[in-house]
Amino acid sequence: MPLRPLVPLLFAFVAGLLASFFILPSDSLFKIIPAACFAVLLLLSLAVQGNAKYPLHLFIFFFAGALLELSNRQSSELVALAERQERVTLEGTIVEPPVVREEMVTAVVRVDRLHGMESGKAAGEKVRVNIYRPESGLAPGDRIQFPARLRPFRNFNNPGRYDYALAMEIRGLSCAASVTEGRRIVPLGKGNLGFPFELLERARKPIRVFFAERLSPRNQALFQALILGEQENIRPELRRSFTVTGLGHVLSVSGLHVALVAWFAFALIRRLLSLSYAWALRKDLRKAAALLTCIPVVAYTGLAGFQVPSQRSMMMVLAFLFSMILGREKDVWSTLAFAALVVLAVDPHSIFTISFQLSFLAVVGILWLGPKIYELISFQSYELRKGLLYRGYLYFCGLASVTLSAMFFLLPVTSFYFHQVSLVSPLANMTALPIMGLCTLPIGLLAAACLPLSQTLADFALALAAWGLDRMMDYIDYWSGVSWTEIQVVRPTFMEILIFFAFFFCLFSLRRLKWAKVAVLFLLLVVSGDVAYWMHRTQFNPSLRVTYLDVGQGNAALVEFPGSERMLIDGGGFPGSEFDIGEMVVAPFLLRSKVLQIHTLVMTHPEADHMAGLRYIAEHFSPKEFWYNGENLEFPAFRDLMALLEAKGIRKRTPSELKGERQISGALVEILHPVGAVLSRRSNDNSLVMRVSSGGRSFLFPGDLEVAGEQQLIARSGSKLKSDVLLVPHHGSKSSSSSPFLEAVAPEVCIISSGQGNPFGFPSHEVLGRLTGQGCRVLRVDEVGAIEVSASGRGLEIRTFRQGFRGALQ
Fold this sequence. Notes:
globular
């Protein structure tokens, strides 16, 4: 048996969980396989003695992980209704504080009843509801009735995607719904949140009101996040200040917050117990303090809403406290493995969540690298050891070693999820976190605890905590204002993350493991091959390559010219939405493809589904030029984009400046429409039409051109329209893709970029019929995901997300 048996058992459990998730389907028949293997091995382990027993335990944990993962898959009666986008009348209870925006409220509703369905159908499932133009305030515990159209959660199917559907499933949400008018909401009085959430909400509501009455809007939002675990009132600009300084984890009640509460409570309880001389003689104060500390840890988790991330953090801290009670706290690796096993046994899908991965990997990094960094940056002096200044120095050395070790160890994972690295994170953590840990959080909790006892004492404590929060925000505002706050980085693949951890494990094991030197050399060769592959793909691209991205109901296409020049044509987007598709969809694809610069941005016409995502790309991918159709409109999003281009010094070019042919890295680029400054009254017919060709192959990008615009284009360009690949105009609308236009283009491949289940019915049956009649191959982004078309001497090579790409599960 190994020295720390729980660590290999954890790896076996995780391996079984992952194998089940990625290999076994949901069919109940397949549950028999791991269940049978688990039972047989368990019985066999009772009969086997000696050294063979532990390997059997590894297999038992493997199949236990597989069985638990299968059992944890939730069946939903609402999903089938959502796939058909059914209209239903739903009765339910709001279970979380609603998120209030300008004209919309988002609430999580637990279904109590579906009208017109059999009794009990879908009861207990949760739905996320968007309510437009609400007429009255909503709060947790309110029971409401409303008509809504159900929608499934969908992913954007691009390489490097965020698995949004899985994230919602892990949160326990079945589907989404929308209510177009708030007046359709019928209040039904108070519902029952169930135990213990009903009691928790009774405790949380007066604290929420207390914060609202006594604090500024900013401090109210922050205290609700720190104390109650509610981030609904955190505005994007405030969140960004935390994100760019590497303090985004502060806004979510997680391991840091629960650990701080445990540390503060343990120190206080131990100090109080030590005041009793008799107690100190009879009892082990550390064990007694650890046992009593469990109470405030559980209480804080409950006050923070008992949400899933805080539950996991509570389990981790309780595992460590129990290890102290058992006298095993020095075996930190076994304690960490035990905590991970407990968390995954309760919810096997936790392993796919960002919070679980960051929390456990941060602890691993601190335990592994922290002591080495501490030894490196601190010096030991017996003469100075008792001095206050020296102790303060050692405190900051410890804080720095913890911050640096966690930051370094998490670097590939944070790059994978957030594609940015904060350069001021160590400084921000070292200056802001002590204030939060010693003042803001404990005194804020004290204010909440005093509220039922003494309003005066609660007011005083809250004022003191708010003063501390203001000082913390002074540091955060300072560091977020530094010009070199963060840098954008490419996103590693899953295999590259594994190589990173394996390389440094072998590097730190050179003295202990004989094979470590060989492993380091091998991994260096692998890294060199990986770098060479991406250098060849991004800097020495041999052929013209176009990737049509899945941006929902919109257009976005990346053109990679031979060599290293790149162009983005449109950026997708949703009208009236705060969702930044440039940041959340287009940028992750680019960074997964190791692209850090887009040389030319093209906007075919200024409508949200083509324009909204371009702002983020213009701000973060250093384009040199911006091509557009010359329209100058007055709506805010367009003005903001133009102002950003001006501030960044990006050259704007209109069709009058782009006339004729131009060469980009050996490829021919032609602007075919519009010509000059004469523009149609219909914005769609003003779309910038571009033809790109190389190696005898050509691509046509007609934007949202409609029939009138197509006729003008045919009359002006004629034979120049002939192209091998056509991006079907206007997402397949029946007002576009006329027969004369298709005959002039005569495409071999037609790409349709439209959103799955979009309300416009795109692509229309008439257009699909005309495309089929033309004899071209039709590929739909809503069906196959992102589509990559490469033009080479061998012809056209086509890969799609579902058939050839590998999506990143986050």
